[in-house]
Amino acid sequence: MLGFIKSKNIILKGIVAITFIYFFGLMLKITLDYIPVSSNVGFLMIKQTEVNSRPEYLSVFYVHVYSSIFALMAGFIAVFFDKKLKYLHRFSGRIYVFVTLLFSSLSGIYIGVFANGGSIGKISFVILGILWFYTTYKSYKEIRKRNIRQHKFWMWRSYALALSAITLRMWKVILVYLFHPNPMDVYQIIAWLGWVPNLLLVEYLIKNQK
Amino acid sequence: MKTLNLIFASLILSVAVISCKKEEKSNEQVKTDSLTSKKEVEQEFHKEWYGIYTGDFNSKPKPTEYGNEIEEYKKISVKINRITKDSVYGYSVVNGNQRSFRGILNENTLGLILDEPGNDKSDGRFQLKLKQDSLIGDWIAFNKASVKSPEKTLKLTRKEFAYNPNFMLSKDQSEDSDYENPVDWNGGKVKKNSFVNDEGKTETYENTFYRSASDNVFKINASKQKLTEKDLKNLRKLDLQIIRNTVFARHGYSFKKETYRQFFENTDWYVPVSNNVDADLTPLEKENVALLARLEKYAEDHYDTFGR
Asked: What residues contact residue B249 under an 8 Å CB cut-off, 6+ apart?
């Protein structure tokens, strides 16, 4: 019986890993569109107002694009190997905390201020950025105090927010496929749909663990 | 943690299937219609005769006791949109009743024989002659019993093409049209759907979806106002395409794509006179056209894909 549960667990982990790798590949492909640096490629094609009127916008945007792909990968490794391979967990965890706190979340808050979708979009992305910074910082503080349980819960929250990069784009594909909305209408919806359900799901799981 | 994995994986997997499908979809290319065209275009002749001819459309004088009498006085506009090797295309409008026609041109006599579709009781045949800038001749109803004046005379003079930045598409108010807004009838996409019938068998059927434009194409004028990203971000590709190509239509650009022809040929102001109007665009129009083309490209590449 124990063996059955164990093998089931391995299969489940395998599915999660494969799914993550698939979506990470999509995210990597999006990131690679921004190499070499250009002021008018991909998402920037509809951001020329900001690019031209704010000299710092382009740099901050690229900090976000280039750093976040590392945060996404490092965070997954750290959450995935939370019990085994302690060395790998610590190594990837440090990268995740370092990159998220210093680069990804702060740049995210800045570009959130100029987000598409009017104030509905802006408010969502700024809150997302602040929460991402806060949860990551809390998790780091907890592990410095050797408080593993709280560290784990805060890191779940943090990484659920990081995964909004993927879930937001998934929702977009679904909503456009089903309803063919106007581009900024769908943007306002996914701005919130990208991270709020993630956070609710994680809170539910944390409640179940307690 | 186990439940997290399970829920997350099943959610992600179900979506993976959808997003895969979307990616397989062939990417039709966005192209500036004024610069390139994919399709082989039928050669056109005598563009100098394209345009609108307006004038009298009266019943034939009938001899009476008091001399010849004309029973009906009306005005008609005849618009010639296209002359190809073997056909002439256009339409006529009398009192708001717009009827398309197709016919032939005799190049030696400069005579035109133009037939209306024939599915309306007041349809008939025009026999006209081109004489410098005038179009003169008559019209005879196919079914002489069905109209009050089955024979009429036409005396029309040509209305010249002139650029005006105020020209816009307008809502189709005619009764026989079910759609007020422009619809891209040439770019339908077939979607397959399936359902389970009463006997429990799965049947599939096909639906063709056509893109239709929003009211923005009647409001946003790229020849008059400086457009910003903010004005255009929320528009879908067809709206952007129409707003951009309305600029070219105002300059008399003769569209190679059927889609655009169909939109503008139904207006009374559009006179296709040139194959290349790029040099005629005002600086404002050039800026707006570049912005619109950029947003069209973005809409094309990113609207329904995994990304922003």
From this structure: B167, B255, B260, B263, B264, B267, B270
Q: Vertex B257, ends B103 and A184: CA angle to 5°? A: 140
Q: B82 by DSSP, 3-state: which?
A: strand
- Chain B residues touching residue A170 (CB < 8 angstroms): 12, 15, 19, 306
pLDDT band at B184 (very low <50, low <70, confident <90, very high): confident
| pLDDT computed for residue B176 by the predictor | 57
Residue B292: both structure tokens together: 């619109």
Closest CA to A116 of A175, A39, A73, A168: A168
B234 contacts A173? CB cut-off 8 A: no
Residue B111 domain flag: yes
B140 touches chain A (CB under 8 A): no
* DSSP code, position B157: E
Of the three residues B131, B159, B187, the one that is the final residue of a domain is B159
Look up the domain containing A147 and give its range.
Answer: 2-209
Q: What is the ipTM of this complex?
A: 0.88
Going from the C-alpha of B146 to that of each of B73, B143, B151, the distances in angstroms are 18, 6, 12
* Cβ-defined contact of A12 to B6 (cutoff 8 Å): yes
Residues of A in contact with B13 (CB under 8 A): 15, 19
What pTM does this model have? Answer: 0.74
Q: Decide if pLDDT at B276 tops 50.
A: yes
Residue A145, min C-alpha distance to chain B (Å): 23
